[in-house]
């Protein structure tokens, strides 16, 4: 995305972030029973703890691993990007349609065309009404040069465990723009968080 | 082919297992006898296996294995040098190396920071150390785990699973040598319980 700068990195590590929409999702998971959850980021034991209690099947894409973000951000025709996006998702198990998607701040690191390809690929393996949760850099003009490692705390807040790094320019996608590029997912609700990020819930349209 | 080492003793990183005497040659009691307590077999770094690996004793893989690995009642460690392209069935699996294939364990699976795992994990307890590379699905639901293990004829593996509680994450810092101590230490309790 943007060019790296020498500016001091935005510090969002180790501070537990109150994310009401995530809390809402967690509460629903507690009562909804078994779900299939796709996490576009890396696996973490706290996340497995949370989802294991709800008997969830967890699919881990870990797009930040092995250059996945760079591969998605290439300038290529839509069908080529669709193939790349499909290859970066975990092998789809027949009959296991996704119910919930955790994007965390992964979308901040993708070009609009890459977001469309990725979320369209996710939509193809998801049930109607599937929810996607995302954290978008909104107030700050810069962001760390790599995605955070957000993990849930015991009281359903989110902590970024990423090591502080250099910063790059943030795309600061607006809600209106995101609503047009999310590959079939429409904005359900949004909240501005204390760290200047905006928390989004998207719902897959029928 | 299989080399035997004292578990967690003499298996230090960088140790040269290639010079060890093959385990079967040391075993006058019969080739089907399981290892003595505290010992495990080792597939050394220079060993490459294409085919099925089956056994009834703990095993550490530092070499290359393609095919199927089935250790119904035993623990498997895939060391940092180990490369496994196989579906793996064991009582417990600890991964420090590279795997491509599905991992099934009747007790637990731990993926350490040096690991690179691509495939699906099925076990009642799973731990992923922060920084480990993993892409695939994780199934910890007890009923689903039993169903999956039943499908691969693992009903006889380990003790019966009477606990129908939800799946539990494992502290990935627990090593092989700590197996059996987790109940006393309480390290296996879900950390995310409100």
Summarize the structure.
With 206 residues, chain A is α/β, with parallel strands linked by helices. Chain A contains six helices and eleven strands. The longest helix of chain A has 13 residues, at 20-32.
Could you give the topology of this structure?
The complex is a heterodimer of chains A (206) and B (194).
Chain A: E1 4-5, H1 20-32, E2 36-39, H2 45-53, E3 57-60, H3 68-72, H4 78-88, E4 98-104, H5 112-124, E5 126-137, E6 142-144, E7 150-152, E8 158-160, E9 167-169, H6 175-181, E10 185-192, E11 197-204
Helix pairs in contact in A: 4-5
Chain B: E1 2-6, E2 39-43, E3 48-54, E4 59-61, E5 64-78, E6 83-95, E7 98-100, E8 103-111, E9 116-118, E10 121-122, E11 125-128, E12 133-139, H1 142-151, E13 168-169, H2 182-185
Parallel strand pairs in B: 2-4, 3-5, 4-5, 5-6, 6-7, 6-8, 7-9, 8-10, 8-11, 9-12, 10-12, 11-13
Antiparallel strand pairs in B: 1-2
Q: Characteristics of this structure?
A:
heterodimer, A: 206 residues, alpha/beta, 3-stranded antiparallel β-sheet, 11 strands, globular, B: 194 residues, mainly beta, 6-stranded parallel β-barrel
Characterise this structure:
The complex is a heterodimer of chains A (206) and B (194). Chain A is α/β, with parallel strands linked by helices and 206 residues long. Chain A is 28% helix and 28% strand. Chain A contains six helices and eleven strands. A six-stranded mixed sheet of chain A has the order 3-2-4-5-11-10, sandwiched between helices. A three-stranded antiparallel sheet of chain A has the order 1-9-6, with no helix packed on it. The longest helix of chain A has 13 residues, at 20-32. Chain A is globular and about 40 Å long. Chain B has 194 residues and is mainly β. Helix content of chain B is 7%, strand content 40%. Chain B contains two helices and 13 strands. Chain B has a six-stranded parallel barrel with strand order 6-7-9-12-10-8. In chain B, 45% of the residues are buried. Residues 6-31, 154-165 and 174-194 of chain B have low confidence and may be disordered. Chains A and B meet through helix 2 and strand 3 of A and strand 11, strand 12 and strand 13 of B. Strand 3 (57-60) of chain A pairs antiparallel with strand 12 (133-139) of chain B, so a sheet runs across the interface.
């Amino acid at each position: 995305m943007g060019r790296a700068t020498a500016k001091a990195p935005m510090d969002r590590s180790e501070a537990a972030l109150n994310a009401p929409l995530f809390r809402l999702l967690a509460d629903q998971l507690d009562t909804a029973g078994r779900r299939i959850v796709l996490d576009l980021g890396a696996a973490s034991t706290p996340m497995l703890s949370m989802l294991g209690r709800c008997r969830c099947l967890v699919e881990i894409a870990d797009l930040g691993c092995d250059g996945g973000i760079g591969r998605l951000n290439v300038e290529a025709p839509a069908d080529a990007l669709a193939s790349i996006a499909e290859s970066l998702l975990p092998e789809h198990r027949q009959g296991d349609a996704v119910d919930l998607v955790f994007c965390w701040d992964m979308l901040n690191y993708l070009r609009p065309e890459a977001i469309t390809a990725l979320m369209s690929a996710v939509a193809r393996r998801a049930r109607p009404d599937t929810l996607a949760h995302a954290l978008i850099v909104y107030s700050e003009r810069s962001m760390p040069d790599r995605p955070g490692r957000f993990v849930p705390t015991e009281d359903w807040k989110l902590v970024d465990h990423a090591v502080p790094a250099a910063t790059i320019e943030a795309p600061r996608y607006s809600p209106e723009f995101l609503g047009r590029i999310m590959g079939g997912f429409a904005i359900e609700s949004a909240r501005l968080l204390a760290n200047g990020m905006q928390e989004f819930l998207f719902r897959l349209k029928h | 082919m299989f080399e035997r080492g004292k578990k967690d003793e003499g298996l230090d990183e960088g140790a040269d297992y290639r010079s060890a005497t093959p385990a079967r040659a040391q075993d006058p009691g019969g080739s089907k006898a399981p290892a003595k307590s505290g010992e495990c077999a080792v597939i050394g770094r220079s060993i490459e296996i294409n085919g099925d690996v089956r056994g009834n004793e703990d095993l550490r893989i530092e070499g290359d294995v393609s095919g199927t690995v089935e250790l119904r009642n035993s623990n498997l460690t895939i060391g940092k040098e180990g490369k496994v392209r196989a579906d793996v069935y064991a009582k417990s699996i600890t991964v420090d190396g590279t795997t491509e294939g599905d991992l099934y364990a009747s007790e637990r699976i731990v993926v350490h920071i040096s690991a690179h795992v691509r495939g699906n994990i099925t076990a009642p307890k799973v731990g992923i150390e922060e920084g480990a590379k993993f892409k695939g699905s994780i199934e910890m639901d007890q009923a689903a785990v039993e169903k999956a293990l039943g499908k691969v004829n693992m009903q006889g593996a380990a003790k019966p699973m009477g606990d129908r509680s939800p799946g539990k994450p494992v502290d990935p810092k627990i090593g092989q040598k700590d197996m059996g101590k987790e109940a006393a230490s309480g390290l296996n309790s879900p950390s995310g319980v409100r």
